[in-house]
Write a structure and sequence with these properties.
single chain; Rossmann fold; seven-stranded parallel β-sheet; two-stranded antiparallel sheet; 12 helices; 9 strands; globular; binds adenosine-5'-diphosphate; binds magnesium ion
């Protein structure tokens, strides 16, 4: 596919046809995915990725078939947090087989592309022509390729870990056929909540239900109550995950925290939050 400026006057490249073909491939790849969730926060460093990994672990422990897409192209962390960093990507037909974590979670991350080969980055698209899109491509195009070229198979849930920034959700929402819901993450600081308030507004506009607000690192900062923020914003409050060094350490090692620290308060909270989310996306009317 050529870039916009290349196709002024066209030159017979049939860009529209190529985008339509990719969109159709994306639709087919996601046909077996029952629900897609996005974990968002306008703020960086609040634990979006940690919670994505933790919640994915809880969904898998409940018997769900789980996939995780790391939509943070510049700061990818999901491969490490789910213990698949350094795995080689395997092509099967016209798709990439996502590596599977010890708990059976399928993971796709930019990190796997970078780590799997020391040669310069080129996306192995089905046709050489499409491989060009990778190099000057924009984020949305990269994500569309990620989603369309990954063999997700049948999944009960695909969790998308978003980079910080309030605009990112709109991009993701425009790509996938349907978002089952968004989960907004905050920490109990004034600064975080100032930004997260905006994220909630954006999440509302994404035409996907806001499943609720999660407070992370509870107890670390003497800040405002996240439950109040949720109430003011008119969205459910899903719970508080306490600050727990063991959670940070397990996530750094790529260990499934809810298994290795099953008795901890953080694991209990994650499990309770995951249970609420499962109920909300299985029976949308229950929230
Ligand atoms: N509840 C928690 N307790 C302790 N450390 C945490 C917790 N949540 C996240 N962290 C740590 O905080 C850092 C930032 O988390 P991360 O998930 O990468 O944030 P984000 O994806 O929002 O940028 C990481 O080092 C992570 O291990
Ligand atoms: Mg992150």
């Amino acid at each position: 596919m050529k870039r916009y400026k290349d196709v002024a006057g066209d030159g017979g490249s049939n860009v529209v046809g190529q985008v339509a073909a990719q969109q159709e491939r994306l639709r087919q790849r996601l046909a077996g995915v029952r629900s897609i969730l996005a974990v968002v926060s306008g703020k960086g460093g609040v634990g979006k990725s940690t919670l994505t990994a933790g919640l994915a672990g809880c969904f898998a422990a409940a018997g769900w078939r789980v996939g995780v897409l790391d939509a943070d192209l510049n700061g990818p962390t999901m491969a490490k947090m789910l213990g698949v960093r350094g795995r080689r990507l395997v092509m099967a037909g016209d798709a990439v087989e996502p590596p599977v974590s010890a708990r059976g979670i399928k993971v796709m991350s930019m990190d796997l592309l970078l780590a799997s080969d020391s040669t310069p980055l080129t996306w192995q698209a089905p046709t050489q022509e499409e491989a060009h899109t990778w190099r000057g491509s924009m984020e949305a195009q990269a994500l569309r390729e990620f989603l369309a070229d990954t063999n997700w198979g049948g999944l009960d849930v695909l969790v998308i870990d978003l980079p910080p920034g309030t605009d990112r959700l709109a991009t993701v929402a425009s790509l996938v056929p349907r978002l089952a819901g968004t989960i907004v993450v905050t920490i109990s600081s004034d600064v975080s909540q100032l930004v997260v308030r905006k994220s909630i507004t954006v999440a509302r506009q994404a035409q996907a239900p806001v499943l609720g607000l999660v407070e992370n690192m509870a107890g670390l900062f003497p800040g405002p109550d996240a439950a109040v923020l949720a109430e003011e914003a008119g969205i459910p409050f899903l719970g508080s995950v306490p600050f727990d060094r063991a959670l940070a350490a397990a996530t750094d090692r790529g260990d499934p925290f809810i298994v290795s620290h099953a008795g901890s308060e953080a694991a209990r909270q994650l499990t309770a939050i995951a249970t609420k989310i499962r109920a909300a996306i299985t029976h949308p009317a229950s929230v």
